[in-house]
Amino acid sequence: MNLLFCTDLHARGDNPRARLDSYQESMWRKVTEIFDLAARHRCKAILFGGDLTHLPDVSKSVERDLISLLRQSPCPILGISGNSHDVWGGSPDTLRRTALGVVEAAGCIQLLWPGEPVVLETGGVTVQVTGQPFHPDLDRRDPRLDYCVYPPGSPDAPADHLHFRAPTARWAVHLVHGMLRTKALYNAPVTLVHDILPHTAADVTLTGHDHGGFAPIWHDGRVACNPGAIMRGSADEEHIGRTVQVVLLSFGTNDFTLDLVPLHSAAPGAEVLSRAHIEAEKAKAVAREAFLQGVQSGGDFKVLDLAGVIDRVARNKGTPDNIRALALEYLTRAREQLAGSGGDDEEAA
Questions:
Q1: What CA–CA distance (Å, rounded) separates 66 from 86?
Q2: CA-CA-CA-CA torsion sign (61, 63, 68, 69)
Q3: Predicted pLDDT of residue 203
Q4: Who's near 127: CB < 8 A, 6+ residues apart?
Q5: Does residue 49 contact residue 177 with C-beta atoms inside 8 Å?
Q6: Confidence band for 285, pLDDT divided at 50, 70 and 90
Q7: What is the spatial distance between Cα 26 and Cα 242, in angstroms, rounded to a whole number?
Q8: What is the CATH T-level fold of the domain 2-272, as seen in this structure?
Q9: What is the percent of the chain with per-residue pLDDT over 90, rounded to a whole number?
Q10: pLDDT at residue 349, as a whole number
Q11: Of 258, 174, 181, residue with least CA distance to 213
């Protein structure tokens, strides 16, 4: 049995500022190629890792085109909902009010929910597919609740666990839209692969959400992988250089394989992504930092003659002498107050 996995389409009607080409045309080409791959390998299903849309309320035209495109799939699509791109506030409870909910109602995708595994069977090979959609506590609570699959009645399963492996399933695949990574992030909660693979009974754990992805990691015959997002919306260096790819799973009676398949329809990042806005922001940041450092260290501001500035501006503008004198008086009072508080009067003023 063959299965194809892809993730993070982020369907949208406008162009990210980093894109030099048409985001929409690139998106349709990639989905068409994925369908061609699924047909060529006679896949039983396409698995999707979340973030089908870029916003929960994408335009009706994008919604319509997406439904029309997904209906061309050569096999069923099983997937999970993503974070706040797919559902409001990252809550699966809002699905009915989103474009993803409409796509599901149109029969274009079957969404997976905790406690509701889907069993696929072909030629005597049985594969169970489970899915954990994003929710606000993902990567913040006990990761075993979301990332691990256990045999029924396992004493290792935490309370309220919902992902179990049926005894009749020869193989088990688990999808999660979470920040599963090989390394921690300083500014976001993550779950580390080495905290999951030794404990799960799933043969394959597949994730999305983190667009950069990570290569397959194996442990005692089990594997975890994130192939990275289908679409590139930013021009970060990791996205310019990375390969846009999908996962091909092939299950036999005794073993299985996982292969990463590059999408030929994806142009090299340097051809379709621009870093001009990033470099401009960097230049602004450097200039801002230099200014702030100058203020903090004194720099030229220590020799700034504020009284002279007031005098010159007043004379150039023809300001009456009494107004100029009043401004100088206010400056003197401010210096006295700052000096009384222990500050450097000239610099602080």
A1: 14
A2: positive
A3: 98
A4: 1, 3, 44, 119, 120, 121, 169, 170, 171, 172, 173, 251
A5: yes
A6: low
A7: 16
A8: Purple Acid Phosphatase; chain A, domain 2 (3.60.21)
A9: 68
A10: 40
A11: 181
